[in-house]
Amino acid sequence: MLYTPLSETDIFPISEEEFSNRQCVTYQGKSLYVEQLNDGSYQLLQLLSTDPQDFLDSTYTPGTILR
What we know:
The chain is of the alpha+beta class. It has 2 helices and 4 strands.
């Protein structure tokens, strides 16, 4: 049993290529877990923060495209 905030597919990805497109980045001072898309932009998968106020900001909603 794993106790982690990550989903099962993040820990055990379907393919190595899918996992290689994911990374942790800093965007506007916040740590984010993102996936790089084919056009070079990033899709937000998860906000990594200990500040509850960060989760109320719609800028960091999962699925948001970051350019």
